[in-house]
Amino acid sequence: MASSSLICETGPWKDLRAHVEDIKKTHLRELLSDTERCKSMMVEFDGVFLDYSRQCVNLDTLNKLHNLAEASHLKEKINLMFNGERINSTENRSVLHIALRAPLDSIINNDGKNVVPDVWQVLNKIRDFSESVRSGAWIGATGKVLKDVIAIGIGGSFLGPLFVHTALQTDPEAIEFAQGRQLRFLANVDPIDVARNIAGLNPETTLVVVVSKTFTTAETMLNARTLREWITASLGPQAVAKHMVAVSTNLTLVEKFGIDPNNAFAFWDWVGGRYSVCSAVGVLPLSLQYGFSVVEKFLKGASSIDQHFYSAPFARNLPVLLGLLSVWNVSFLGFPARAILPYSQALEKFAPHIQQVSMESNGKGVSIDGVPLPYETGEIDFGEPGTNGQHSFYQLIHQGRVIPCDFIGVVKSQQPVYLKGEMVSNHDELMSNFFAQPDALAYGKTAEQLLKENVPRPLIPHKTFSGNRPSLSLLLPSLNAYNIGQLLAIYEHRIAVEGFVWGINSFDQWGVELGKSLATQVRKQLHVSRKKGKPVEAFNFSTTTMLTRYLQESAD
Ligand code: F6P
């Protein structure tokens, strides 16, 4: 396809480029003094409140961004996604994670077939299975109740479920349903992760859930064989039937591994790994831990955002606004990173999850038609909960590089604490920081202000804050299963919006393949060197030297 199809060749893109200089002339201090502007940059949907007035944008910028959305055919692309078109063209797949949380009476077609009944068939199977394990109707090989679960999986088969589990762990309703059960995640092929996961657990009371879309991922399969060994060594080979279940799209390989297909929970190739937390990938382990009714609320929260994303006008559409602002920050203002800063310890695994969703989706170098891109896509996502991050990397954010920040706050704490004699509750203390940081970034502190405070002159350059650093604030009413689902879907769709505007395929991940195939060659080399004493060969000088050293030193 001709390069004229690239979004950067369109009028709206060029218009925005030209507009950058105007915006650079205006400090956020000035932009924030315009109350009408600020009012227009606050949007609420279903209890989620977004304030993006601290973005380096004026109303003109927003108009231009909406023109860009039109030029990129954003609305049409969203429709194609919801209509089950094969928008993941390099893998010839549709992208229908929205169907995973759709109400039973919805119709979402893939290849002319409504997939919602299939989704609910698996959900019902999960409901039944998790209830029987939790109630003790399903028991282990020695007759004991299975109270602990280890979910084995990596990447999208790990990070989303871990995020949701971590977020629910302190939710009062979820705690009640957890009933002293444990859920652990084994992801890394590092044997240390195995040791940590099985520490203190008894195979007799443990259920292992092997989660892998392909059922071929090297790390997951080795970990699955390792835990199969852990179970069968003490309980015998027949124990697999009671102690191991699987989640996969590849039921043939599940059976080959030795897991009864009746104990397998399916999903489909139209669910991308990093978008799979609402499939059995997340729903099974989370239902085992918290019960299906809690997880169903999580699905409902995500579904509410799906409807909003599909139908709300762009000017009030949370994922669309967030996506367009990200494109502005990356492609026009040139800010390569984005900090995800939840002011809630329960969201400590949110940034790592979004890191995969965003960076695996949008870290691309060519357009969807294979044309090399003359502009950058994707952002470097990282983050930590506030206030921990404040005592770590915020120095750089305040006085070093400009990094647009997402501040995520919660009105009602999952675990409020009120201490006698304190000015405010512990949650208010946390939230004081949530409200203060965006203003510190936006306004900064001038040399004049410091002089008035009698700061010694030599310290003035060190204590000056330039300000004009963009952020946005998302305020959730509380952090229960429903709100967690909302938050997930907002970010999933925001990332899709960015990819749609950049004109890339956000749903493939070819960039992870090369490292995997090189690891296969190394694995073969390690095998022949150890077994047959063959010298390291066919690698470059650097790798040969390191491998030889590793083999020699680990043989001692
Ligand atoms: O690292 C690449 C990747 O394919 C991810 O996209 C995916 O989430 C992960 O590996 C795990 O894959 P699977 O679920 O097939 O084991």
Radius of gyration: 25 Å
For the biggest sheet, the summary is:
6 strands, mixed
Basic shape: globular
Number of strands: 13
Order of strands across the main sheet: 1-2-13-12-10-11
N→C terminal distance: 57 Å
- What bound compounds does this protein have? 6-O-phosphono-beta-D-fructofuranose
Which structural category do the helix and sheet elements fall into?
alpha/beta
- Which band does the percent of strand residues land in? 5-15%
Number of helices: 23
Q: Average pLDDT value? A: 97
Helix content: 40-55%
**Uncertain runs:** none
GO molecular function, one term: glucose-6-phosphate isomerase activity
Subunit structure: Homodimer.
Pfam families: PGI
Main location: cytoplasm
How would you describe what is shown here?
With 556 residues, the chain is α/β, with parallel strands linked by helices. The chain is built from 23 helices and 13 strands. The strands form 3 sheets. The protein has a 6-stranded mixed sheet with strand order 1-2-13-12-10-11, with helices on both faces. Strand 1 and strand 2 form a beta hairpin. Helix 7 runs parallel beside helix 13 and helix 15 crosses helix 21. The longest helix is centred in the last third of the chain and has 22 residues. The radius of gyration is 25 Å and the shape is globular. The model has no long low-confidence stretch (mean pLDDT 97). 6-O-phosphono-beta-D-fructofuranose binds next to loops.
What labels would you give this structure?
single chain; 556 residues; alpha/beta; 6-stranded mixed sheet; 5-stranded parallel sheet; 49% helix; 10% strand; binds 6-O-phosphono-beta-D-fructofuranose; cytoplasm; glucose-6-phosphate isomerase activity; SIS_PGI_2
